[in-house]
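Form 7-S
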Amino acid sequence: MSTVTTTKPAPSAPGPAPAAAAAGHGEGRIGLRANLRHIGALVRRNALQIKQDPESMFDVLFMPIIFTLLFVFVFGGAISGKGNQADYVNYVVPGLMAMMGMNIAMAVGTGVNDDFKKGVMDRFRSMPIARSSVLLAKIVVELGRMMVAIAILLGVGFMLGLSIKSSVLDLFLAIGLSAVFGSALMWIFILLGLTMKTAQAVQGMAMLVLMPLQFGSSIFAPPSTMPGWLQSFTDYNPLSNLADAARALINGTPVGDSVWMTLLWSLAITAVTMPLAVRKFRQKT
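Output:
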């Protein structure tokens, strides 16, 4: 009696989930128009989040008012002389434009970190969208928040005696320069948000970066009043370049190399940190 043996086919190796596979293959084929459409949809999603949580705009609405009043009335007399606060307004408000961009950029890093904790990024993982569109959408929304903060800052400045001694075009150039530099800084904080484990750690690390750059700059006081070693640091501080450029554009004084230095700093920061942030984001998703 013969024995018949049947051979079962070997089980196939598990492949990637259909959605994940589509996302992985689809990202490479996404064209510019589709990428822009994805960015627009994600911008709308982030804007709706702000609408549902108006408290997230408190920093944008109140920070410019508090900082302007604080520095003008507390430090203005000591720096410009008693009774000369109006002169200090034209000095400090352009500098605060640089400070607004840096403080708002910090919120991008904590927001990215928080999205991972809440599982929001898990939804994006299964969608056939370019990973970079998620980060670019956050940049666009935060630039919008930054424009609101600068508008409030200028409004308070005008009430305190700020005068535009050049032209409206120069004022918009100063705002645009602040936006370019602020968007470059956002990539630094996005990278921090993707690297650090908690939002608190991102804030702590950001403060270690913010404090020396802000107070070791020409934002609040002329570098000539500082010790020699601090003046050397101030000269190479990118925030000083931005503050000097915005101040010169608004007050109608020679800009020198400050505008070009600010643009070079922005280009260098973006060229280094943007690819690192996108790569880290793809690794995490």
